[in-house]
Known about the structure:
The protein has helices spanning 2-25, 29-54.
Amino acid sequence: MEQLLVRLLLTAGILLLIAGVIFAILQVWLYTGLLWAGAFGCLMAALNFRNFKNDGG
C-alpha cells in the first residue's frame, strides 16, 4: 500500500511538471508557477514518505 502511495505521488508530480511545461510554452506564468509548486510538493512528499519508511517510522 505504501509503494502505491509513493508511485501515485511521483506520477502526480511528473504530470504536474509536464502541464507546467505546456503552460510555460504558452507563457502563462501564473499557472506555470502554481503547477510547478504543486509538482515540487508532490515530489517532496513522495521522497519524504520513502525516507520516513526507510528510517523505521
